[in-house]
Amino acid sequence: MTASPLPLAAAPLVIGSSTLRNRLVATAHASGFIRDGLPVGGDAEYWGRLAAGGAALLVCGGTTVAPESAPRQGNILQLHRPEAVGPLRERVEAMHAEGAVAVCQLVHLGRETLGAQSYYAPVAPSAVRSPREPTAPRALVGSEIDEVVEAFRVSSAHALEAGFDGIELHAAHGYLLEQFLSPRTNPRGDGLEVLERVIAAIRGMSADALLGIRFSVDASEDVALTPDELAALLPTVDPLVDYVNVTVGVRATYVRDMATERPPVLDDLARLRPLVTRPLVASHAFRTAASIGDALAAGADLVGMARALIADPDLPHKVLTGRATEVRPCVACNEDCRTFDPVLLCVVNPDLAPHGEPRRPAAPLVGAWDPARATGERVAVVGAGPAGLECALSLAHAGVADVVLYEAADRLGGQLATAALAPHRAGWAALLGFYERGLSAASVDVRLGQTAEPGAELEGFDAVVLATGAVETSPLLEAGAMTSSVALARGVPSLAGAAHVVVADDGFGWWPGCDVAELAVAAGVPRITFVTPGTAFAGAIPPESRVQLLERLFGTCELEILPLCTATGISPDGVTVAHRTSGGTTTVPADRVVVVGERRPRGALDCAVPLVLTVGDAVVPRRVAHAIAEGREAAVRIATAVRHRMPHRRA
């Protein structure tokens, strides 16, 4: 057996009455396979697949303990209901079958509604309004605190009846238990007493069940415990639990995006380690073998991940067997994994899909499909953006022997490479690195700087996948504007020296316009005017990303937002801006104008070959997730077709 390159990460750990097979933890998240507050088909399969990837401890999240803490759409598990026990037992059995220890995290949201509608009023220790909510909660009074303790006890009883090995109490992210512990939201000062009552209620049901607790380590403007408050609390709580799990942030900030390149709790481990005698779990933004090693070296006993395991559930096996370069990386884009639409999905992982689907649904555009004419397994993929990269790599992994990847540019990536050049968006570069390593290891014939022609060159193939992408265009280009793609590709020099930059957004509030604004800041532009037909700046990017973006922009420049406005022309005097409400126009002086234009598919190639599929932006320009899913789907269809045609080649 090959020795682990991270020997401590591979070492077993006894924690309470359980033995963990290694030091890697799947921290609390939800599968999304929840309807009307109960698990449905796909839930057990998700957790079983995660356990099969090698993580030792799986913490199931998204589990509330009381009706007033449950959104009315029913997409969060409601464990106070006894009918949850049966389907949860299937989840636990799936995890145990793959050798994982199963823990259920319990939460009461208190004054935080997650922005979702509820049938009931939010409650908290006092009527102090959350900055993330429009109104203050109702203060808990009298015996209602007893009811909160009982809610945790009943839900814990249901979890243990379902077979879970333990319970994790969620006292982080500004939710109810932290609201009790914080003097800013609980002036009575009885928070520790309430927590101790909850712990005693759970311990009273089982002396063997694991019991952990999760805290946020950083202070915020409202509820989160300050470093000194947490330091004073930990020695008291530590003897009462089996492990302590530390993370960061409150509701709007706890899921950091790709601008956070280093796990934030690493800086806190030296302070926390002496305060905790129990196993210490370090969580959040651990995505690489190097950062896992850093956490263990700094004193953590266990390292927790969620999004990294959503992107690649086999990360533990790969890291512990020296195959870390094969990990499909989480890029921390916070797109699909934060929406649960309709279930947990991932931009970079096309294998994550709704129940009953073999992979994420996708439909390449069929230009020709005549497998009977295929005489071999020679496939050309034209275009090395995310769709082409995924297709070429998937074909190689499927065993298709002869794959040629054409790219007209001198680099891989297409628009993905351009996005990776934007300030604070380097997560995309990790995905490009994954594809580059994979293509090299699979010996795919990559031809950079070469345009595939529809003549004899392509006609020598059995199948052609067109992943030629899209071009960004705008009527303002003829008047001297620059597209967002060009500006980002050229980088800081494209805006250097400008005193005033106008960014003409398309009104849909996605990343291109935001990226250009940050590029202008990086270029030292003192004044930026952001013109958008929409109602807001950055209105469509993930909410956590928007919070972090605005924090980065604060105090960097004079940023003026002109909502409900459209840039209609450019003259020597400046940019003509039409106001959608008044019907009038304004001229805004500017040194440079960058426009977020409409992206249109490049012209299709005419290929007289048996199998022709078009994927990604070459079909309709959309998101990275669509490109990757269609690239995978095209590869599966082609590999299946040529294998069926020539079974003797597969003997």
Q: What is the number of strand segments?
A: 32
Biggest sheet statistics: 8 strands, parallel, barrel
Overall geometry: globular
- Mean pLDDT over the residues: 95
N→C terminal distance: 30 Å
Helix proportion of residues, in percent?
Answer: 25-40%
Rounded to an integer, what's the Rg over CA atoms? 27 Å
Neighbour order of strands in the largest sheet = 3-6-9-12-13-14-15-16
Task: Please work out how many helical segments DSSP would assign.
Answer: 19
Quickly give the structural class. alpha/beta
Structure report:
By secondary structure, the protein is α/β, with parallel strands linked by helices. It is 29% helix and 20% strand. The strands form nine sheets. An eight-stranded parallel barrel has the order 3-6-9-12-13-14-15-16, surrounded by five helices. Strands 17-32-21-18-19-20 form a six-stranded mixed β-sheet, with helices on one face. Helix 2 packs parallel to helix 3, helix 12 packs parallel to helix 14 and helix 12 runs parallel beside helix 19. The longest helix is centred in the last third of the chain and has 22 residues. It is globular, with a radius of gyration of 27 Å. The C terminus is likely disordered.
